[in-house]
């Protein structure tokens, strides 16, 4: 597949709906840059944790931002994430970070900091970007907007399997409760809450294989490229 210049694909949805997995595959197939915004917020949360800051202290966390360099490298199964040159791919997915990232991600100064970086990448490359406010806030003019959904039960099972593969021991009932609470926090935060963009196409991933979801979204992208070629 040949990439068109500066084509933007925004993928939003709740936790464990499959955003990162699908986005990474699509980016590879279309030869676009994959921007994992969730990992960016997780990395800032980790930086706050390592600095001994309270997750509620926006002022102190904001002071960390100018000194934080977040970079990515290709990796399997997860894209490798680095904080100031140190790999934090596994560290940012520990329960401590997962359970507190929503609070940190809601801070205006944190969102402003990352918004600029995310838009800068999109201005320089064709991208597949996933998160919770990509189609509504970060890339409001994206040519393709996808909103992925899945049942809470299935999303908890997915997170449970991912944790087992990474050696993280959290029981399924706890994960289910965590996901429900994460959904509530993401949907009810004051700044850029999780919501479906008016022009986004909803794709339900419940009981679908990764290949089925990728195929469905690929067809959406190809149709959009044909109707609205980017030069």
How does this model look, in words?
The chain is of the alpha/beta class. Helices cover 49% and strands 15% of the residues. The chain contains ten helices and eight strands. The strands form two sheets. It has a five-stranded parallel sheet with strand order 2-6-1-7-8, sandwiched between helices. Strand 3 and strand 4 form a beta hairpin. Helix 2 packs across helix 6 and helix 8 crosses helix 9. The longest helix is centred in the C-terminal third of the chain and has 18 residues. It is globular and about 50 Å long.
**Mean pLDDT score:** 91
Tally of helical runs: 10
Major beta-sheet overview: 5 strands, parallel
Report Rg.
17 Å
Element-by-element helix/strand order: EHEHHEEEHHHEHEHHEH
Classify the beta-strand content into a percent band: 5-15%
**Beginning-to-end CA distance, first to last residue:** 16 Å
Outline: globular
Care to give the gist of this entry?
The protein has 231 residues and is of the alpha/beta class. The chain is 49% helix and 15% strand.
Descriptive terms for the model:
231 residues; alpha/beta; five-stranded parallel sheet; three-stranded antiparallel sheet; 10 helices; 49% helix
Any chance you could write out the topology, listing elements then pairs?
Layout: E1 8-12, H1 19-30, E2 33-36, H2 37-50, H3 58-64, E3 70-73, E4 80-83, E5 86-87, H4 95-98, H5 101-105, H6 108-124, E6 127-131, H7 134-138, E7 144-149, H8 152-165, H9 172-188, E8 201-204, H10 210-227
Parallel strand pairs: 1-6, 1-7, 2-6, 7-8
Antiparallel strand pairs: 3-4, 4-5
């Amino acid at each position: 597949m040949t990439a068109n210049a500066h084509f933007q694909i925004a993928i939003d949805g709740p936790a464990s709906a499959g955003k990162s997995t699908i986005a990474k595959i699509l980016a590879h197939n279309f030869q676009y840059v994959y921007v994992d915004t969730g990992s960016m917020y997780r990395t800032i949360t980790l930086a706050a944790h390592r600095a001994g800051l309270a997750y509620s202290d926006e002022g102190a966390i904001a002071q960390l931002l100018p000194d934080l360099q977040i970079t990515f490298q290709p990796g399997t199964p997860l894209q490798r994430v680095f904080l100031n040159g140190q790999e934090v791919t596994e560290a940012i997915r520990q329960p401590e970070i997962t359970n507190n990232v929503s609070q940190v991600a809601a801070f205006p100064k944190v969102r402003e900091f990352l918004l600029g970086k995310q838009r800068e990448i999109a201005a320089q490359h064709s991208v597949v970007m996933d998160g919770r406010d990509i189609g509504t806030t970060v890339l409001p003019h994206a040519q393709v907007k996808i909103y992925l959904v899945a049942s809470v039960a299935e999303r908890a099972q997915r997170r449970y399997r991912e944790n087992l593969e990474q050696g993280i021991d959290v029981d399924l009932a706890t994960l289910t409760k965590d996901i429900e609470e994460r959904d509530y926090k993401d949907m009810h935060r004051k700044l850029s809450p999780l919501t479906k963009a008016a022009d986004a196409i909803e794709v339900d991933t419940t009981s679908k294989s990764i290949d089925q979801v990728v195929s469905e979204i690929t067809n959406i992208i190809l149709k959009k490229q044909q109707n609205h070629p980017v030069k």
